């Protein structure tokens, strides 16, 4: 089983090795009980309440009309990352290896990521890049591996949005990006707390450039040519 990298280390892989479908390059070219989590869920803070699919979808017309070529590239970059996160949580739910707060986290965050994908696709229309194919290499089938991977993905997502925000041209696109960024930060804080890590380790968060994010994605080797599907199986496709 592939080990998960630490926060400050990246395994070197080329973009071509992981981006066999061309999705990332296309983007670049386009320029449990009454626990704490249970209480928060009952309070309506999860399940889309903080942003909701409708909120981002409502922004879509304004985003689409205001987006420059540069903004389209940034939105497609974000969409590729959101596809990665959404597929990761969707598969983790289907595999059935999660329990307690981890299962709640996957369900709630998965709903958010799928809403992000839907909203970004609506804003981009025909300009939206295609969804890559993924192999999560067993990380969706083991709770500890799932949590470690989720922490890396969420921290990376937060830093990615922060890095791109200053590059955005239009206010409408910036507002949409910030609406997602704040929710991603909540995800990162939640999973960090679950793992016994500081939810907010620094007073000022570092940003990541597009190149740094792409190298981080490459290091996971999660983007692949095809799934290893088994015909006729009622079990979700195995990607480990």
Description:
The protein has a two-stranded antiparallel ribbon with strand order 1-2. Residues 1-21, 30-53 and 226-236 have low confidence and may be disordered. The protein is mostly helical and 240 residues long. The chain has nine helices and two strands; from the N terminus they run ααααααβαααβ. The radius of gyration is 17 Å and the shape is globular.
Give short descriptive properties of this protein.
disordered N terminus; mainly alpha; 240 residues; Ferritin
Distance separating the two termini: 7 Å
The level 1 CATH classification is Mainly Alpha
Count of DSSP helices? 9
Q: Given the helix and strand composition, which structural class is it?
A: mainly alpha
Number of strands: 2
- Provide the residue-averaged pLDDT: 78
Strand order of the largest sheet: 1-2
Determine the oligomeric state from the structure. Answer: single chain
CATH fold label: Ferritin
Order of helices and strands: HHHHHHEHHHE
